[in-house]
Structure formats: structure tokens, C-alpha cells
Amino acid sequence: MESSRLRDMPLYNSRIINSFILLVKHKYSHVDINELLEYAGMKDYEVADQAHWFRQDQVDRFYERLLQMTGNPKIAREAGRYAASPDVLGAMRQYILGLVDASSTFDIISKATANFTRSTTYHSRPLASNMVEITVTPVEPGLEKQYQCENRIGFFEAIVLMFNHKLTDLQYFPEIRHLPTIQQPECVFRGDQVCRYIVTWEKSAYTYLKKARNLMLPLLVVANLALLVALQGRGVLEILLGSLSLLLLVSLAAEMSEKRAIKEGLSSTNHSIENLLEQIDLNYNNAMLTHEIGQRLGNLTRLEEMLMDVADIMQRRLEYDRGAIFLVNSEEGRLQLRASYGYGAGELACLNGLDLPLGHESSVEDVYVACLNEQRPFLINNLEQEKETLGLRTLACAIKNGTRAFICCPIVSDGVSLGVLTAENVKTKRPLVERDVSLLMGTASIIGISYRNCELIGALEQAKLELEERVAQRTADLEQSRHKIELQHEELTRTLFELEEETAQRLQALEELGEKERMLLQQNRLAALGEMISNIAHQWRQPLNELGLIVQELPVMYDRGGFTRDYLGDSVARFMKVLGHTSRTIDDFRNFFKPDKESVPFRVADVVEKTLSLVQESFRTLQISVELQVGGDPIITGHPNEFSQAVLNILFNARDAFLDRKIEDREIWVAVFEEQGRSVVTVRDNAGGIPEEIMEKIFDPYFTTRGPERGTGIGLYMSKVIIEKNIPGRLTARNVANGAEFRIEAPGRGGSE
């Protein structure tokens, strides 16, 4: 994961920042917490929400500003110690105290750190009954800062002190001098890969008593035997009773100490269970709220019934002290209170008296209007700090009604603002958090759907009445229209018959066109056959001359007496070599005319080289120089023989241009290369180029400038058909300096257009 991307992700749970905030409130009362949070880009309800996470840059700005405001360079370590206090851990602290010892707690902490931080991973292992090793591995080097390492050290100290002192009101411990020893043999801020901590603490009384009980039995046995030998059997009973009494006293003390630790753990676990049950009850009510609203409102068709049911369900299922629903009154152009719960008569009068005009052009600044227009929720835990957002009238009404905190959420359906849903706390001291906003937004969404449902049902009933009136009129119109439909049916039947005939004619035309193309291809092959016969003559002339020379040389060597066995073997070898070359020439020409049965991947350079080999002798006789350049290894999927025929037609076109125009210096340049993932073949000549007035016609069938007695006019046409339909690719032509260039482009490596 890239550093910039990880740095912009939420990495640290709000409970970490909350421990700093509670420490500031406890010890640094002069620090303005609102200013601190604003500088860090945080909201107070985000800190209070245990499901919220902050980014690295937010945490860095928070610590930077806190360091300036407190002037305490050890504030991070102090906050780490304070993180284990009841104010911060709450039910988690009760659960920790329910464990047997600090070593077990560190094991739990190492597994639960994913709930607090995503920037590091923790691993702990016990080294002794009072010693544990904790290894902290960064997810990405260079992300965390050194103050976060110090904060961890303080937290480890707090965990040990909770067990060693068992203070139920533990909040802060500057008075404790015997802090646990924490060694740090490795640290990322000293260049190491991980941070490794070795935490050592004082052993508890239970540990000493248990150890003493285990060692006392063998010691007493040895001591009793020694006394019996020394006293020669006198006082045996007294010695045994005394030793047994001492052993029982120590065992009893160890047992009582162990039971006391277990009892304290059970008590803490009980408190933790009670807190968890309260949270489960809250979650159950929230789930039932959504279920009841969705189940009951789906069956309601009248708006007033729906609003009263929503208010009743919210009052029973939510923990907010009171709530209200405002809906848009389109006729008056303002928000209007339509349903509520938890308000007294005077408080409702205050809400009804609010003047809440709608529209972006309104000069009234009010949180309800802003929530409706902007379609976003507002959460306010401190009325004084958010008085500009609230608006003067709403603020005065909220203060008069004793509101401590409230949420307002827009009621929206299909992108249209319908109203505002609000919830307030008067007596409840718990701060409102993002979870509350999400819950009310879900409720508001269901209200919006039900509102639209009521509107649609009302419109449906009105439409039903109108429909009944129109049915009578439409019945009369239908009879009149029936005759017209019959006429239209006859017209459609006739049109369908004509379309079927036209379709059959077009299919026949397509078949004829396909047959025509096959005939043209065969005609082109026959034309190429004549060319090939001439090329075969050129290809064989030189080998036949060479065979003749070998045969004529035999009698001469015989007369001279040089007709030896070695000479005969050498002559036969040369003879067979020429015959082999001639045989391969026959195979090349035969393969050229063999039809390709299926498309296969082929190397373009190989096909082009074989094509040039078919015409090299005839072109050499005509003094036409052909130069081939190959770059890369382009591969095309198609029919290699057809591709060869297309290239051959282009070469013959250049040859004819040389001969018709009587060009003396005759050169052809062929290039094979790859360009932007495509296979390209270019054939360029210096035969004077193509006249601009016929450039667009050269690929038309039967178009030729040589006359019907000297050319068929289908060579370039068939080349274009082969390249653009069978590959498929593209064949183009253009004029270059002193000549023309034909360019074949096709998908490379078996790709597609």
C-alpha cells in the first residue's frame, strides 16, 4: 500500500483521542478543548462516537496543538497511563480486572488492538509470571510518530498498576513511585524494524504465597528428619504437629488470596456484563424501531395516521427524550410541525410559533431550513457553540424548552426534500454521536417513502374516480375505433407481405454477392496462376542450367581421366542439391494455391519472406530490386495463403507500374513491424505514384488503367477484401516521394479491432 494512500485513511479509533480529552479535563482545565479539536479537524461528537476513526494527519495536528497548549513534553505518556482509568475504559476496564493477572491482560490487549489502531500490529508473549514481551510492528514504516510510542509505554504502565493496586477509583497516578519497569531493546525511531517492550512488575502477594506453599513441603520434610535425628526421637509428635500447622496456615493464606482475586475478578466481570446488556438492549430497540416502522407504515395510506404511528414508535423504542416531524407546506411556503412526542403544551406552542420560510432565497438562517435545503443532517451537542448554525429563533426556542442536544435529519424521497425529523435530549447526559445520526437518517428515509406512498395512494384514488368517468367515454370511442383498427390490420398485413418479399430479395442479393466474391477470388487466383507459371519458369531456369553444366562436365572429366569415385560422389551431391531446391520450389508454389481451411496465428515476416521468394527470380529478370526490413515479431491470426496473395497483388501492381511507365531505376521497399500493438506491413515503390483523381477508385472491382486486354482490375479489390473482411484489418494507399505506399494494418497477437 502506498504511503500517501495509507496516510489519508482512518487509522486510529476515537477512544484514543478521548483518553487525551479526559486527561485534559481532569488536569489541564485551562486548555480550550473546542479550539484544540477545531485545529485538528475533529468534532466533539466524532470523539464521543466509539465507531469513528481518525487519520494520521488529524492525530498529529491534535498532539502538536496539545503540546503547545499544555507545555508538557510527557503529555503522551501521561495520556497513556490515563487511558486505563475508569473514565476511559469503562466496561472494558471491568473486563480486564476480571482476568487473573496482568500477563493475561497483555495477551488480550495484543489481540484487541485492531479495534483501536490500524497502523500497527501487536504480539505479546509471557517471559515470567511478572514479565511479558510485547512486539509492535508498523504496517508501514515512517507512518507513526515518536509520541505514539511514548503513549503506548504509558498505557502498558497503567495496565500493570490496575492489577497491583486494584484501585476502583483509579484516574491518575502521579503519586505512585514504584512504576513497572519497561525496557525497550528495539525501537523503530532508533532505526529498528519493530518496537519491542519488556514489561516487568512487582509480584503480587498471591504469587509469593503460592510459591512459598510449593517450596515449604519439601523443606519441612527435610527439617523434620534432621530434628528427629538430632533429638533421637524425642518430641516427634510436637514437631510433626507444628510443621503440619505451619503448612496448613500458609496453604490457607494462599487459598484465601487466590479466592479474593477470583472474587474481585467475578465482581468486575459482573459489572462488564451489566454494561454489555445495556448496550444489547439499546441495539435491540434500534433494530425493532426500524422493523416496526417498516412493517406498520407500509400498510398506512393516510398521512396523519402514518405520522402519529412514527411518533409513537420513536417514543417507545428510542432513548431520546422527545422528537418532532416537520413537513413542507407548499401552499404557505414554510415548514410546519405535523407530529411530535415528549413535548408539553408550552413547548409545542414554542415550536409552532417558529417562522420557517423555505427556499434558498430566504434571508432566515435556521438549522431546520438548512437541513431541508441542503439535504444533510445536523448534530449539535452544545447550543452555545452552534448558535450561528441554529438561528436566533430556533436557539431561543431550544433554550426555553430546556434542550441540551439535538439532531435534525432531512426527510427526502426521490431527491425531493419533504420535511425534517428531529430528536432532542433534555435529561439524558449521553452525548449524541454519528450512530444516532445514522439511525435517524434511516428512520427519515422510511418516513419519506411512506409519505410518497400516501401521496401516491391519494393520487390513485383520485385517478380512479377520473378513470371511471373516462371509461364510459372511452367505451363509445372504442367501438368507433374498432373499425379503424380493422382497416389498419389489413394495411399491416399487406405491408408485412411486402416486407417478406423484400427480405427474400435482399437475402438472394446477399447470396449472389457472396457468390460473386467467391468467383472474384477464384478469378484472382487464376490470374495469379498465370503469373506463377512465369515465375516457375524463372525459378527453374537457373537450376536447370546448373544441372546441364554438371551433366556436360561428366564426359569431359572422363576423357581427361579425372572421373574418379570422389568426383562422381561430389557431382551426384551437387546434382541432388539442385534437385532438392527445385523440389522445394514446387512445394512453395503448390502451398501458395492450397486453400486455408481455418484461421491460425502466423508470423507476418515468414509469410512476407515466402511471398518474396516466389517472385524474386522474375523480379530480378525485370531488374526490380526488392528490400525487406523486419522489426519485432508481429503475429496475425488469419489465413496465411490469402494474406500472401494480398501482398503478392500489391507487388504485381508495383511491377506493372514500373513496366507501363518504363521506369529504369526500379526499387521496392517492404517493411514489417509492430506499432501500438498492431502488426503493420508497408510496400513502397518509386514508380511515380497514383494519380489523385483515381486514388479513391483503385480498390473498386474491375477498375484498371491498363485496359481490359492487359489487366483484370480485381487484384487490389481482392487484396482489400482479404485484409478487411477475412483478417479483419485495414488496407490503405497513399502517395509518397516518387511513388506509392500500400499499408496493411491488422490486430497483433491474435487480438481484435
From TrEMBL:
Documented EC number(s): 2.7.13.3
Coiled coil: 482-519
This protein's UniProt keywords: ATP-binding, Coiled coil, Kinase, Nucleotide-binding, Phosphoprotein, Transferase, Two-component regulatory system
Pfam families xref list: GAF (PF01590), HATPase_c (PF02518)
Descriptive protein name: histidine kinase
InterPro entries per UniProt: GAF (IPR003018), GAF-like_dom_sf (IPR029016), HATPase_C_sf (IPR036890), HATPase_dom (IPR003594), His_kinase_dom (IPR005467), HisK_dim/P_sf (IPR036097), Sig_transdc_His_kin-like_C (IPR004358)
Chain ranges of the Histidine kinase domain: 535-750
Cleaved signal peptide residues: none
EC category name: transferase
Record keyword Magnesium present: no
Catalytic activity, as annotated: ATP + protein L-histidine = ADP + protein N-phospho-L-histidine
Keyword Transferase carried by entry: yes
The species this protein was found in: Geomonas anaerohicana
